[in-house]
Amino acid sequence: MNVDAKTTLVLAGLTALFLALSSSFRASLWGNPEPLPVLPLVDAVFTNTATVRVSAAELIRSGGDTSNLECNTCHEENKPGKLEFDAKEQVVLPAGHPDLVMQHGRKNRNENCYNCHDEANHALLRTRDGHKLKLEESTLLCASCHGPNYRDWEAGIHGRTSGHWNRQIGPISRKGCADCHNPHAPAFPSLKPAPGPHALHARSAETHEAKGGH
Ligand code: HEC
Ligand code: HEC
Ligand code: HEC
Ligand code: HEC
Questions:
Q1: What gap in Å lies between CA 189 and CA 196, rounded to an integer?
Q2: Ligand 3: does its nearest atom lie under 6 Å from the Cβ of 121?
Q3: Do 135 and 142 form a contact (C-beta atoms < 8 A)?
Q4: For 58-76, what is each residue's pLDDT tens digit?
Q5: How confident is the model at residue 105 (pLDDT cuts 50, 70, 90)?
Q6: Which segments of 79-157 does DSSP mark as H helices, in order?
Q7: Strands in 10-169 per DSSP E
Q8: Domain map (residue ranges) of the chain
Q9: Does ligand 4 lie within 6 Å of residue 55's CB atom?
Q10: Average model confidence (pLDDT) for the chain?
Q11: Residue bearing the CA closest to ligand 4, atom 27
């Protein structure tokens, strides 16, 4: 056999070998790699940037149904209502508002409607030092009793600030207290934690779970 014929034979042999290898890879003859699990999308609840509640201010701003906020459709101006108290000196929910949940402070220290609402005009809020505010200005009402939290909020270390980092370029906006706290029962509700990151392989996810991860 001459050299040329030998070379041709070797090259043809190699070509056949590689073709055989490639078709065996395509047919997955050696071991079936585990298919990657389909990653479920994170529940939209966890990516939603809305606050935990809709305040009166937000309801008015967004043009929602404000009929509950129009106090004077049922109450008469300059005709102060009368509150009733039970034996423990806790305010009894008025007949017109049986659905309210009043729980402000650990010992219900702030349940008197007129600590916040104006006695003569129910449609207004009134601070202890006599300033009248609209329902949508409640952050200033909270500020009148919760000075330290309000100063933290003004400094941007309580609540949520959005908008421009550099205020020379544009303004910032802050969520009001009532966007996160229900004025009548202000303890912040507990939230469900968002799921952890996805492990690519089912098996590593199992070991992760076994170690107590999420
Ligand atoms: C759909 C009608 C209705 C609307 C709207 C309404 N109320 Fe009342 N409210 C009532 C009724 C009825 C009572 C019970 C009156 C009674 O017992 O004499 C009441 C009682 C009260 C009382 C107890 C003292 C009182 O006047 O008897 C307060 C405080 C009060 N409401 C605040 C408010 C505020 C603040 C708003 C608006 C944010 C409001 N209400 C909106 C119907 C309404
Ligand atoms: C700590 C202050 C505070 C106290 C105490 C308080 N309120 Fe309010 N109330 C508010 C504020 C602020 C709003 C506006 C709500 C918002 O922005 O979501 C409001 C809203 C309301 C509304 C209309 C919206 C709704 O939740 O139905 C009614 C009715 C009402 N209050 C009645 C009462 C009654 C009756 C009492 C007493 C039993 C009372 N409030 C005690 C601060 C207070
Ligand atoms: C008239 C005074 C007064 C006003 C107005 C007032 N608070 Fe309070 N707040 C209190 C008192 C008193 C406590 C109870 C403190 C304690 O238990 O040690 C309290 C407690 C709280 C707590 C702790 C809740 C808990 O269960 O531990 C939060 C949150 C809160 N207030 C938020 C607000 C918000 C938001 C507003 C405005 C809508 C507001 N407060 C308006 C007097 C007030
Ligand atoms: C973006 C949401 C958000 C806003 C806006 C917000 N808070 Fe809070 N606030 C929280 C959370 C979350 C907690 C912590 C609750 C916990 O630890 O259980 C809290 C806790 C509190 C407490 C409980 C005591 C403390 O210091 O931990 C008070 C009082 C309070 N906030 C008052 C206010 C007042 C007043 C404003 C407005 C000036 C305000 N918050 C605005 C989310 C908010």
A1: 21
A2: no
A3: no
A4: 999 999 999 999 999 999 9
A5: confident
A6: 138-145, 147-154
A7: 84-85, 91-92, 124-126, 132-134, 161-163
A8: 53-180
A9: no
A10: 89
A11: 149
